[in-house]
Amino acid sequence: MDGTIYDDCTTPLFAFDGVGGPARSEQAEPSRRGSSAREGSRVAVISNPRSYRNKRRPLTVPSGVLVESPRTRHELRRTLASFKHDGIELVIVAGGDGTVRDVLTCGTDVWGDSPPVIGVLPCGKTNALAIDLGVPDDWDISQMVAAWKARSFVERPPIEIERVNEGRPVLGYLFGAGVFVDATDLAQTTHRFGAVNNLAVALSIFGAVASTIMGGNNSAWRQGKAMAIRYGEDAQLSDGTAANSEGQRFIVLASTMERLPLGLKIFGERRPGMKTLVVDAPPRRFMRVFTRVLRGMTWKTMADEGVHRVDTGEMRIDLEGGFILDGERFPAGDYLLRKGAPVTFVTS
């Protein structure tokens, strides 16, 4: 999308799930549709052929359901526009979290005030959003369509992220900066050895903890990244947490999801809205604090120990080292995060 923090709409789609480099073709793959156009004529699928499961098991496509595999964000935008023109009411995303991010981002202007219902088939390597939505890992297109017809829906607002004073936002569900960027690099290593979903998350956490502990006080992991954070006026601040601050941060996370892989409760008890976690650098009493954060505990000395949980509708962050949004790395800079309009998803 021109004018967004997607630098070039002609870059390959889904770079996190596959191999980077130039797109193989300027045209989308030929569409596929079942023999009867009546049964599924209001349903279409965006399939990421590079995603983990799609490379191992081809999609089973019911009669009348259209399947498209656009190769670039430009092609994706055109595909979504054609879906709107054809009256598609359910768009199923067969891919990982990054695929969903691209579909929602590129579809924002196309759909306007009349977006379709979104179905998420967990075909990627981590599928955190599908876990949050309660979508079974072994679901297929037919089951997704049946749930849609039964109006089994759940809403989740995305996080809208944009450079301050520059262009349109990118939409996603899990933002991470600081050590989260390095942990995501570790996750790519575990993926190459076949670890996916909860196993990949567990191994990445273990690797990040080990690197932080074994790296010593002068390690890059412990020193963190310089960030300036300013929360919105509606922020729910705890004692000792400043509305505006600058300093070194070990990790910053933000999400509108309510359930995380492995049942982690890093944002505390389950609740809606945009939730943030900030841990100052260098982390203090690391293993004690780390264990409490993962379990969702709240304690009186949290802020004194550099741990801040804040619910807010908006947060501005100027950061070095870049950030990760649903698996893709974005550059350093000054960004505005805000809770977006709810998206309707199919659930089980």
UniProtKB/TrEMBL annotation:
This protein's record includes keyword Transferase: yes
Highest taxon in the source lineage: Bacteria
Record region (Disordered): 17-42
Protein's UniProt name: Diacylglycerol kinase
Organism: Croceicoccus pelagius
Keywords: Kinase, Transferase
DAGKc domain boundaries: 83-167
SMART domains: DAGKc
